[in-house]
Specification:
The protein is an all-alpha fold. The chain is built from twelve helices and no strands. Helix 3 packs antiparallel against helix 5, helix 4 runs parallel beside helix 6 and helix 6 packs antiparallel against helix 8. The N and C termini lie far apart (59 Å).
Length: 309
């Protein structure tokens, strides 16, 4: 008797139809190898930028996300070789689904420091709270998704509780991202008003580089939000009898492309890119902060991407 799913699956391409697999298709080998190669490149770039600009925490979060993606897409390559591989399925489910949590963590930490650097007094939420609230929520999302994956693994994918936990993690991630987007948009509107009220002194301090930095952060968070909404909708029907989970084109477009473009947006939404002179000089002796203070009409704290205590 053939078993098509679970740790004891014994189907092969010669013995069982592809429709017996969870995805009902054989994952594209060229597409998944391409994503693996792209994430290796992205990982290398983020490590280089992190070392160059000494943005250790941002680099760590981005590196973890890229490593998760590489492992996840390697799992899909395993599924190309053997579409009934339960190990390949669990690798891609846990790593591809959970990886973006690290990217949002990098964004939360970076924006909290940007708010502290530019004008902390106009933020409705204290800069320190951006870090603690949203990072804590991110950790909760990751735990729920990992727990859901573990239950699915132990139950051969049949655990409704496992599906519900993974769904809860994804839904919470969507809610957290929407709330964050609201605070982000509110801060940028209030900051634009502050620019107009303070005239050219403050406006001159916000360079094209910083505008690209904020644009990169905003684009990345919106792309991740779109992807999370797609994954919630995909998982809402479970791992079986789902018309979305069997559509590889949707997966490639709304998961693969969306998240990779978000990772690329964070090349410019990088704390080192946005605050290069501050970040490097701060670590060398905080000399740049003294130069900046002479150009601003109000006092601002020096920038670092290390978490606040």
């Amino acid at each position: 008797m053939f078993q098509s799913f679970g740790p004891g699956a014994n189907c092969t391409l010669d013995l069982c139809p592809i429709e017996w697999t969870i995805y009902q298709y054989r994952p594209s080998l060229p597409a998944n190898i391409t994503f693996m190669a792209l994430y290796v490149i992205a990982l290398s770039i983020h490590v280089y930028l992190g070392v160059r600009w000494r943005s250790w925490w941002f680099m760590a979060f981005m590196a973890m996300g890229c490593i998760y993606a590489i492992i996840g897409y390697a799992g899909r390559v395993v599924l190309w070789k053997n579409p009934w591989s339960f190990g390949g399925f669990m690798l891609q489910m846990v790593c591809v689904t959970g990886g973006p949590v690290f990217y949002t963590a990098a964004i939360y930490v970076t924006l909290s420091r940007a708010i502290q650097f530019f004008a902390a007094e106009i933020s409705r939420l204290p800069a320190k709270m951006f870090y603690w609230i949203f990072i804590s929520a991110d950790i909760t999302c990751l735990i729920l998704q990992a727990a859901g994956g573990a239950l699915s693994s132990s139950s051969r994918g049949a655990s409704q509780t496992g599906i519900d936990l993974a769904m809860a993690g994804l839904i919470l991630q969507v809610v957290v991202l929407v709330i964050f987007c609201g605070f982000f948009a509110d801060y940028m509107i209030r900051f634009a008003q502050l620019q107009r009220s303070r005239g050219s002194t403050l406006r001159a301090a916000i360079t094209t580089r910083q505008q690209m930095f904020f644009g990169g952060l905003a684009a990345a968070i919106l792309l991740i939000l779109v992807r999370c909404i797609y994954r919630v909708d995909e998982l809402s029907q479970g791992y079986s009898n789902s018309d979305k989970i069997t559509d590889e084109g949707l997966f490639i477009g709304l998961e693969g492309v969306m998240i990779y473009v978000a990772v690329c947006c964070l090349f410019v939404g990088h704390p080192g890119f946005g605050f290069q002179h501050i970040s490097m000089d701060y670590n060398c002796g905080r000399t740049a902060s003294k130069q900046l203070l002479s150009t601003l009409a109000h006092s601002t704290p020096a920038y670092s991407d290390r978490p606040m205590s």
